[in-house]
Design brief:
six-stranded mixed β-sheet; alpha/beta; Rossmann fold
């Protein structure tokens, strides 16, 4: 015969069980697996997979990723963000590929009061009520472009032409170039733009060459970023050619081929991990990222985009550990709030692209340690002094 004491004890255990367990930590991830930005979005997804392999649980709680494809469409980016928050009840958002898409997603995150880690560069966004809510892992364009301008000045170049995308990323690159060049007494004498979907940039290249610049900077990324390099080579351009971190891509190298040789790009340290000093803490994390990437995806990384989403994961894990240590439970509004606060109190978190120190006044969180210059040589990236 079962005693009343045993029945009461069993009942207490049943009641206590669900209260003791925590929900999985839910990450809502949006990327462009299809569409014109998929050459960035697919690597972004592979970087998140590497992150999950690198750290799959936090404080004993499993981390679960819910991934949605925005098809490179900004409207879908915002819609997916809302779906992940309102229907899936995710604790944090990470995404997406492309500046316009990321800006749309960030705007939705701010409206819903959910912390977000942007893995594509975006211009400043309003803090929002109770914010700020959004940090980003890509280096700020002014910091990257400053490396180009410093190189131009050191080599006595006085004029530069710009050929880039006719969208938010192109604007960001051009504005960064204009500001840094003005301070260095270098004149930007052409501003030519093209759409990511264009199949030819002949007119833009001819106008840029007609201005007779000392150097040309390319403001495109991924596969469509190769068009000006090819067109310039076809017209015999032999002058200095500068790119950007969006050209650290196997798709760009494949399409540009030999025409990419000589292009100097500012980028994060991960692409030249083996060439970094042994005492550089970024080298260790970068090599660990490559190991995790290979384990998760069955191949070695050949781009820089995946490392930005991997760094997003590293930043998220660090913040989540501190949020949970403060007693916040995943799945609750309190956890979202604690995550937001933890994100903007990030200190010296080492990633593959830099060392992150986010504050409410600094959503980028990186310094000169996050920038190197590399020159493309036969499909490889040579670290410049």
């Amino acid at each position: 015969m079962i005693s009343m004491k045993s029945l009461l004890g069993s009942a207490l255990l049943i009641l206590a069980g669900p209260q003791a367990a925590q929900a999985d930590i839910l990450v809502g991830f949006v990327t462009g697996l299809s569409g014109p930005v998929s050459s960035i979005g697919i690597p972004n997804a592979k970087g998140i997979a590497a992150g999950e392999t690198y750290v799959g649980e936090i404080g004993g709680e499993k981390v679960r990723v819910i991934q949605l494809d925005d098809a490179s469409d900004a409207t879908a980016s915002a819609r997916n963000a809302r779906k992940l928050v309102e229907q899936e009840k995710v604790d944090i958002l990470i995404g997406t590929s492309g500046a316009p898409q990321t800006l749309a997603m960030a705007t939705a995150a701010i409206e819903m009061k959910v912390p977000m880690i942007a893995v594509s560069p975006i211009a400043s966004v309003p803090a929002g009520e109770g914010g700020p809510w959004v940090v980003q892992t890509p280096q700020p364009m002014p910091l990257l472009v400053q490396g180009i301008v410093d190189h131009m000045k050191a080599h006595g170049l006085k004029t530069v032409a710009f050929i880039g995308f006719s969208d938010a990323l192109g604007d960001l690159l051009y504005d960064s170039l204009s500001q840094s060049a003005k301070a260095a007494d270098i004149k930007v004498i052409a501003n030519e733009r093209y759409a990511r979907s264009d199949s030819s940039v002949t007119a833009q290249v001819l106008r840029a060459l007609a201005a007779r610049p000392d150097a040309i900077m390319l403001g495109g990324t991924g596969t469509p970023g190769a068009l000006p390099a090819i067109a310039l080579s076809e017209r015999g351009y032999k002058g200095p050619l500068y790119g950007n971190n969006g050209m650290i891509s196997a798709d760009f190298l494949r399409l540009a081929g030999k025409t990419a040789n000589g292009i100097i790009c500012p980028t994060g340290p991960v692409i030249a991990a083996e060439q970094l000093a042994a005492n550089n803490p970024i080298q260790k994390v970068s090599l660990a990222y490559r190991t995790a990437y290979e384990k998760a995806n069955g191949e070695m990384p050949t781009d820089s985009f995946s490392s930005y989403s991997f760094d997003g994961w590293v930043v998220f894990v660090d913040a989540a550990k501190r949020a949970m240590a403060a007693g916040a439970k995943p799945g609750s509004p309190e956890f979202r709030s604690a995550l937001r606060q933890a994100l903007f109190a990030t200190k010296e978190v080492v990633g593959t692209q830099g060392v992150y120190n986010f504050t409410p006044a600094d959503r980028h969180g990186v310094d000169d340690r996050s920038r190197v210059l590399v020159q493309i040589e036969d499909g490889k990236y040579k670290l410049l002094p």
